[in-house]
Amino acid sequence: MIDFLTILLGLAPSFLLIVLGGLLRGRLSTSAWLGLDKLNFEVLFPTLIFVAAASRPISASDLLTVGPAVWAIMLFGLFLGWTSRSFGPKSFLDFAGAWQTAWRFNTAIAFVAIGVAQRADAAVLAVAIGMAVPVANILAVSALSRGGNLGKLATLVKVLRNPFLIASVAGILVAVSGQNVPVLVLKPLEMLAQAAIPIALLSIGATMKWAALAKLDAFSGILNATKLVALPATVLIVAKIFGFEGPLISTLVVFAALPTASAAHVLASAFGADRERVATIIAQSTLLSGVTLPFWIYLS
């Protein structure tokens, strides 16, 4: 277990990049920031996920262990998040837009955190993300579809076309095959992957509503407590009860403790849900994770 101050110092540069993004917000137009988000979503982060997943061989047992574990974490988040229903908006569509923040996760901060959590494993995290992305999207799109007009086929197409899902599956297939990606192909992919995190952190800061903490109420409080406190605490308690330990548990704790996905408001907006409410919860989750995430990394 590493020193708590070391963890804070390790995460500080990343959170400073988020602050810098906030300071640079006015230097670029809204369309420019949206363009950076699009580049990250379609190219840079999928490349990062692929490179991380394909970086070492993965056994079938890894998939059978990591997959059910992250699915259970997200389903528990869905269940706990539902307890906020009576405190939320009357419209189910607006509620569903916010509800998804209880189980979705910020991939950018995931790879930042894994670099600080010395007992965790980046390759295991990549597998976790690969197994979690499709389920996270299915749950979110299904919930929003119930309040919207998207049919089952359109929902399935939306999930299958997700770049994170495609990159995750491709990386896992390479890792399971035991084959190495040719150096001529891998090097440019690694260069793209290195650009993903700083650009994502700047963009998070540029789009974040910094006054969001003042709007913390019972509804958003339950959703944030679910994502930032209840899920990682449950992973640690279950691990303690059954005597589980090692890189897998540390990685699952980090995964469970991540703030919610910064793009959740984009999906909410696409379905016509209250985008402003979701953006506020995302900002709260990201800001509060500056306190909670180092704590969980330390305990893992």
Q: Assign an overall shape.
A: globular
Low-confidence stretches: none
Order of helices and strands: HHHHHHHHHHHHH
Radius of gyration: 18 Å
CATH topology description: Na+/H+ antiporter like fold
Mean pLDDT: 86
Q: What's the domain count?
A: 1
Strand content: under 5%
Textual characterization of the structure:
- The N and C termini lie close together (8 Å).
- 76% of the residues lie in helices and 0% in strands.
- The protein has 300 residues and is mainly α.
- Helix 2 (30-53) crosses helix 9 (183-207), helix 6 packs parallel to helix 11 (247-257) and helix 10 runs antiparallel to helix 11 (247-257).
- The protein is built from 13 helices and no strands.
- It has one domain (4-299): Na+/H+ antiporter like fold.
- The longest helix has 26 residues, at 122-147.
Key features of this structure:
300 residues; Na+/H+ antiporter like fold; globular; mainly alpha; 76% helix
In short:
This protein is mainly α and 300 residues long. It contains 13 helices and no strands. It is globular and about 50 Å long.
Topology:
Elements: H1 4-23, H2 30-53, H3 60-82, H4 92-99, H5 107-116, H6 122-147, H7 152-160, H8 163-177, H9 183-207, H10 218-242, H11 247-257, H12 264-270, H13 275-299
Helix pairs in contact: 1-5, 1-9, 1-13, 2-6, 2-8, 2-9, 3-6, 3-10, 3-11, 4-6, 4-12, 5-9, 6-7, 6-8, 6-11, 10-11, 10-13, 11-13, 12-13
